[in-house]
Amino acid sequence: MARRIAIAMLALVGALLVAAVLPLGLLATSREQQTFSADAVLSARTLAAVAEEGLSDRRDHRLLEASINRARKQADYVQVYNAAGRLVAASGPGGRLDPPAPRSALDNVLLHGGVTEVNGDDRMWVVASTRTVTGSADSGGVVVLSRSSSELDERLRILWGWLLAVAAAVVIAGAAAAIAFTRWVARPLSALDVAAARLGSGALSTRASASEGPPEVRRLAGSFNAMAGRLEALVHGHRATMADVSHQLRTPLAALRLRLDLLAQDADQDTAADLAGAQEEIARLSRLVDGLLAVARAENVLAEPVPVAVDAVARDRVAAWRPVAQERGVRLAANAVPAWAAMGEGQLEQVLDNLLANALDAVPAGGHVLVSVSGDGHGVGVTVADNGPGMSSEQQQVAFRRFASSTPGGAGLGLAIVHRLVTANGGSAALSDTPGGGLTVVLELPAASP
Length: 450
What we know:
Blueprint: H1 2-56, H2 62-73, E1 76-82, E2 87-90, H3 103-112, E3 115-119, E4 123-129, E5 141-148, H4 150-200, H5 215-266, H6 269-300, E6 306-309, H7 310-327, E7 331-336, E8 340-343, H8 347-362, E9 368-375, E10 379-386, H9 393-398, H10 414-424, E11 428-433, E12 439-446
Parallel strand pairs: 7-9
Antiparallel strand pairs: 1-2, 1-5, 3-4, 4-5, 6-8, 9-10, 10-12, 11-12
């Protein structure tokens, strides 16, 4: 964003400079050229007026010679021709102009009078008549003035040099202002972005500075801090409530189970059977409380993602659950390629434990469960496939919700925990049918570098 703002400001400054400096330079150049031309014409007319008197008095050319000498001192070359086209007076080496004045301009002025301007590569010629109307063949003449345009070129170079220097200074000042402005705007926004990332990673005490930048950014930082404060209060309150509920529920459940155990010792057979059923319900209630606490922790504890070797974790959890699978007559295997994913520490183990527990509970003796790991550099795929009874499409749609269980007596919280932990780390979880029958859980995890 900072780069785009700076580029936009420099582009605006550049457009303004082009719109202002270029027309100004062209206008000044045109005025200088007009002034140069007008001054040369005026000098030629003045010489023509002096030459008219000198040509009329054939014996006295002192005034004309003095004027020509003054023109020579100003680096002007002058030639004076009579009406017959014969050179009468001249300044310059050998009495000739180098290069000579254009003959067509000379003939035109001799015939018609007036003033003619001819521009060359590095000089300007002005051919002026010494009479206002065409006279007789032996009266009048023309004056040819040649003036170098080097002085004009030097003035124009100085003019454009100053204009370019001013434009460069404005561009440098604009660049400095753009950098200062973008830093003033972008620095608090960058800090706010970092604070939002830290808050999203679980650092609930993160706050952004609300004392820098434009008023809009300061208000945004203040709103962010207020949101972070309310979020921190809500999360801490929720955690405290869950901890209190856990303590308050587990204590009476343990006491109730102890009393039922004492009653079952002295009860007859029928009463003992009823008490055993009550104990099973208490055990189920205890599992439900533990599952709710696990879901609450999965929803509220946002661990910092770290690189996790998914293949190693998968093989480790399969090895840990293999004795349980062998006891139930289920074949448990892993097919994992090296892959790394970004997850909170210990969360992938919790996810796989819930999936393997559900699969081993659902698969009958003689079945199999396969854990597969694949990776393509953009993400890591983890699948847990079994050949158990599977789920209907309606059950798969609600399986990740709390208390949605397809197993009689199940709490319906295992897949909810899996879904919360995976999605909290930027992944996804989905269910599908295993070819040949059964259920396949597909997890997509964000890839990470080892």
